[in-house]
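Comment on both lines for my students:
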Amino acid sequence: MANQYILTLNAGSSSLKFALFDGTSCVGRGAIEGLGSKPAFSFKSDVLAKAHVPPVLAGDCATTAHATEALIGWLEKSLPANALAAVGHRIVHGGDRAQAMRLTPDLRKQLEDLVPLAPLHQPYNLEAIDLIAAKYPQLPQVACFDTSFHATMPPLHRRFAIPRKWHDEGVKRYGFHGLSYEYISGRLKEIAPNAFAGRTIIAHLGNGASLCALKQGKSFDTTMSFSALDGLVMGTRPGALDAGVMLYFMQHAKMDEPAIEHMLYHDCGLLGVSGISSDMKAVLDSKEANAREAVDLFCLRLAREAGGLVSLMGGLDAFVFTGGIGERGVAVRSQVCGLMKWGGIDLDETKNAQATGDAEKTVSTAQSKVAVYVVPTDEEAVIARHTRALL
C-alpha cells in the first residue's frame, strides 16, 4: 500500500463525488456535478493541484459512467503509474449485510436486485462499478453500504405490521445514511465519550434527511426505513406518509405508478410545500408564506420524530447536527432545539450562530441537560477506512 492511493466514489444521478486518500490522510476531494445537463468539474488537492483538467471533465460527461471514466483517466495521468490501490464505493442499499465487502460478480448481481428499494441511488452506484470493472478489471473495488450501520437495530424495530411472509421476503426497516452515522459515532467516541456511551440522536440533514438514535455508539433506531422516502421532510421527498394517500392517488387521482414514483422522489418535501426550491437556504431566504410553512413543517416533523426516539431510549444525553443543513443551518438548529426544549436542550444562540460547518462545535449552554454538537460528517473517510481494511 506504500505510495498507493485509495479512491472513494459517491455516484448519483446528477453528480459524482470523489476523494483521494494516501494512507489515512485525504489528499484531495472533488465532484463532477450537473451530469445530464451542464457538467462542471471541481476539486481541491495538493497532490493534484498542478494537474491539467481534461476538457472532457468540463463538458462531455452525460452519464455517471462517462464521468467515472473521465475521472479515472485523469487520475491515471495525474498520478504515478499504478498509483491507485483500490476504489471504495458508497452503496446506498446493501440489504441485511452488516459490513463492507469486496465486490465480486455475484455480489454485483445481488446489489442489482436491490435497485427497486433505492431507485434514486442504486442504479448510479452500480453504473460506476461496472465501468471500472470493464476498463480496469485488476483494480480492487469495495462496496460500503449505507444500510450496514443499522444492522444493530433490535429485530422488533425493523418490523412493519404486515403479513409475516412479506417481512421474510425483505419488506422491513433498513435505515440509511449509515456511513455518515458511523463517522459521527466514531468522532463522538473521541470528542464526547460520555455522549458516545449514552443516548444520542444524530440528525443528518441535507437534501436527504434522517435521524438515528444511538445507544453506546450503535444504531438503536432510525427514521428512514424500507426506502429513502420515509421519516423526515426532505428536499424533494415527503418523509412519513399515510399509505391511504397512495391509495387516493391511484384510485381517485388515477395516477399510475411512474407518476406517483416521480412525485414522491422529485416533487414533494421542501420543494412541494414551498413551491420555490428544494434548497433549504433558498427557502429560508424567501419571504413567501409558503416558504415559511415549509421550514416550519420540516422542523416540526423533525422534533416529533426525535421525541419518539427519546421515548424509545428512555432519555437523551446528546444531540448532534450534521449534513449540509445540520452543519450550516443556524436558523433550523435554533428552531428544532426550541421545539426540543422540553427534553432538556438549552441552545446557546451565540455559539449556534458561529457554527457554520467548518469545525466541530458544542452549541449548548453549560446548563443544558443535553449536550448539543455540530459535527461535519465525512462519509469518504469511512469508505476509505473500510476499503483499506479489506485490502
Observations:
- Residues 289-313 form the longest helix (25 residues).
- The chain is about 40% helix and 20% strand.
